[in-house]
Specification:
The chain has 18 helices and nine strands. It is of the alpha/beta class. It has a five-stranded parallel β-sheet, sandwiched between helices. Strands 1-2 form a two-stranded antiparallel ribbon. Strand 8 and strand 9 form a beta hairpin.
């Protein structure tokens, strides 16, 4: 009997030694990240090592040697010294990232559109690090107390944004760089509101005009840096020049509409790019329409709607008309075409060259179906292809970062390798599926525990990890504001991406797009 007990004790001690070596590996891995100045990832690994050590300490209560206990206490004390220091550095890094992104958004003279993987502030960062600040510190950090004024546009009164100026800054003699005051978004000007409220010939198309400021920014779109720079130069700056000429009373001799075509696979963000261009060119009016908004049942109504659309854009101009899936309206002409369709084509082609303060932006997945007459009038054509592996890694962190995740940048790089041929829309669909699974898991959960890193919220867990203080609680007895979804891990997303076929882009379409791009370059 004693031999059996002794053998069991030795086996238990070997298991504890193996667990301790695993904790030591986690600690060394975290220390390596910290030495390489990757402190946020180091903090995550320190947390993992700390949780493993806490479990190991409970297991070692019955069977452990004095030497093992001393090593365990020594490692735990060292870890407790590193955790607050590393967390402080992490908070500084998150603050620097927020400041950098805010500066990019505010810097109108030389906008930077680069988005890097470690520049994305996730929900984990906000809860773990920014949650450590007091409420006043968070307000001063996230809402910088600078007075930002819009220029007096078209007789409007000057509005001030951000009145919460810190009092102590006023007493400091720090030279502040004078920033150019941005123009008010045109949809907020008095002239625009007067035109929209007055009776017009194009009242039936007013619903196509965006009357609220757009929220999509360049930073919200990951990747496509060259394309965003070109759109900024070609279209946003073109609208700015039109506005300045209009205010100076200069009438252009060339009455030409700038037309841009975005083509590429489905779900690559062509609509988001169009909204970001209109957001950047805040002096313009954004009009979003579909071919079905212009097509009518009776002959003569469709050309009339097209005329009213461009007249409305000219009256409200400078304007950007965005048409998604434009190939259905701009389709190729044929000898068998009915007269009504021919009237639509000729009327649209005439309007594309009739107004200087109107820009047309079309998006399509099938550019080879568009008529050559329209292709000639498009000044520039841009391919919006599938994201690269590095861009998909940033997308994964940006999208799944809305959840409470404990995933490092290296793991996001590994996940990006599993998302080949996926578009941004496919990744967003996978995120919605995972979010639904987490909610369903929480509804079916029978065991819960407190999460100290989420301000003591209750999260679902397995029966082995359940907290004794909440094991007897039923799902309906827990207050909704207390219950949260559990932390999303690397294995969750890996299993999700491997278990289903998320790709919606066909190989044939990609081949046709490449052939069309090469043919366009030759022309």
């Amino acid at each position: 009997m004693s031999l059996c007990c002794s053998s069991g004790g030795r086996q238990k001690q070997q298991e504890l030694d193996e667990d301790f070596r695993q904790c030591l590996v986690l600690y060394n891995y975290a220390a390596k990240h910290e030495l390489n100045s990757r402190r946020r990832e180091a903090f995550i690994w320190y947390l993992r090592a700390n949780s493993e050590l806490e479990l190991l300490k409970v297991k070692a209560l019955l069977v452990c040697t004095r030497e093992f206990k001393e090593n365990l206490e020594k490692l735990m004390s060292t870890l407790k010294q590193r955790l607050p220091t590393c967390m402080g550095h992490c908070m500084d890094e998150v603050v620097d990232v927020l400041e950098r992104l805010r500066q990019i958004c505010k810097d109108g003279d030389s906008p930077s559109y680069e988005m890097r993987l470690f520049d994305v502030v996730t929900e984990f960062d906000r809860v773990m690090f920014l949650g450590r600040f007091s409420e006043s510190e968070c307000n001063s950090l996230l809402h910088k107390g600078e007075v930002e004024e819009y220029t007096d546009d078209e007789g409007d009164e000057v509005l001030q944004v951000g009145q919460n100026v810190l009092d102590d800054i006023a007493h400091q003699r720090i030279p502040v760089k004078k920033r150019r005051r941005p123009h008010r978004p045109r949809c907020q000007t008095k002239a625009f509101k007067d035109l929209m409220s007055a009776e017009q010939t194009w009242d039936s198309l007013k619903y196509l005009v965006h009357t609220e400021p757009l929220e999509v920014k360049w930073l919200d779109i990951v990747g496509y840096e060259d394309l965003k720079q070109n759109l900024q130069t070609k279209l946003a700056d073109f609208v700015q020049r039109n506005r300045e000429e209009r205010h100076l009373g200069i009438s252009g001799t060339r009455q030409k509409t700038l037309s841009v075509l975005l083509y590429g696979p489905v779900g690559t963000g062509k609509t988001q790019l169009a909204m970001a261009v209109a957001k950047e060119a805040s002096e313009c009016v954004f009009i979003q329409c579909k071919p079905s908004d212009l097509l009518a049942k009776y002959r003569g109504e469709s050309p009339k709607s097209i005329n009213l659309l461009f007249k409305m854009a000219s009256d409200l101009g400078p304007s950007i008309i965005f048409m998604d899936e434009c190939e259905s309206l701009l389709a190729r002409r044929s000898s068998e075409e009915v007269d009504g369709r021919s009237d639509i084509t000729s009327q649209f082609l005439q309007n594309l060259s009739a107004f200087r303060n109107v820009s047309f932006l079309g998006a399509t997945n099938l550019p080879w179906l568009i008529d050559r007459g329209y292709i000639r009038r498009f000044s520039v054509k841009y391919l919006v292809g599938l994201p690269t592996e590095s861009q998909r890694a940033v997308m994964l962190k940006q999208i799944f970062g809305e959840l409470f995740t404990v995933i490092t940048d290296e793991e996001f790089q590994d996940l990006a390798k599993l998302t080949d041929k996926l578009s941004g829309s496919d990744i967003a669909t996978a995120f919605d599926c995972l979010k639904s699974e987490l909610v369903e898991e929480g509804n079916k959960a029978r065991h819960f525990r407190y999460c100290p890193f989420r301000r003591n919220k209750v999260v679902p867990c397995s029966e082995e990890d359940a907290d004794e203080s909440v094991t007897k609680l039923r799902r309906r007895d827990i207050e909704p504001f207390v219950l949260r979804d559990r932390a999303t891990t690397f294995e969750d997303i890996k299993k999700l991406l491997k278990g289903r076929k998320w790709a919606t882009v066909d190989e044939k379409d990609l081949k046709l797009l490449k052939e069309y791009e090469s043919a366009t370059d030759k022309v």
